Predict the structure.
Amino acid sequence: MNWLLKKVKGDPVIWGVVVMLSLVSLLAVYSSTGSLAFKQKGGNTEFYLFKQLLFIGMGLGMMWLAHMLDYRYYSRISQMLLYLSYPLLVYTLFFGVEINNAVRWMEIPGTGLTFQTSDLAKLALIMYLARFLSKRQDTIHIARSAFLPLLGAIVGICVLIAPANLSTALVLFSTCLLLMFLGRIPLKFILAVVASGIIFFTLVATLVMKMPEESIAGIARLSTWKSRIENFMGDEENINGRYQNIQAKIAIAKGGLLGQGPGNSVQRNFLPEAYSDFIYAIILEEYGLVGGVGLILLYLLLLYRSIRIVVRSPKAFGALLAVGLSFSLVIQAFINMAVAVNIFPVTGLALPLISMGGTSTLFTSIAIGIILSVSRFSEPEEEDGFASEDKGKEKGGNFVPA
């Protein structure tokens, strides 16, 4: 145990939150995959439990590796990942693997494994944005040298993600706007982008909602977006269209204050995607309002500790990197929970570190590992021989610039 504590650095509270979320994930996935295991694995309910355990273990390993690397090296890595993201997103758009009527996955040659290229692009864009903002602070108020190049990169990535995964593109775009605000981009530029975006999406949504179903069939996922909006805003008695929402509400109502107990969910047998998109509804059913609020507090604690890292970070790159990645994860978590309680229309976003997943869990783990790296290397002096940046300069050290 002492050896492990010496090897694990960074904010201990964030490590604790990760461990608790991982335990919740194992319990929730094991409970919510009963019907899926019966249909696909002949009743072997432990299959998905061990699969989730494997990915959580791999995620913790990648988190540890990511937090061992000085966060300043991610400044250079972000450029390579961003340049790589564009061709991967284009390839996925035209030749990607279709799963659940969405083309979001790319198959890794020779392995049979798939991953969402949007996960890589999201991580790369936030890292690149933190790098760009930290390096252009002297000219941050000039549109031509700072704002427009940055906006081009953001729009380019989000436009490539949007056709297959609009919700991820919108969350990423919102996170980038927040990061630009914190990076001292003039507010008038940001408000202009927000106003333009609202006008554009209002016009597109109005046009799509008025178009007949057959005219938009096969165009990206327009028919899916239209049906989700109609179901969310439509008649409460539309049982077929609101089936997911109705089953989620039943699960929440059954949970009450203290819940039905671990493994006692009934709605897992009726709620589609109970192990991913609607896993929060199953948690509410089994652990009640107390468990649901406790999960919210864990994500808020993750955000709070990340903000503390931002305050302590001596470099703008580390501060922007930590706040961008943490806000991205927490915003996604809150949107997933809002969908489960019928505040938002169905989006398809997973609950970070909770929902059953493969590569999404790994990329989330890497993001948290980078946050922990900022925490670790923002300390005045490290116990394992790493010196602070000022001491490194005095000794002739060569740190990667932020």
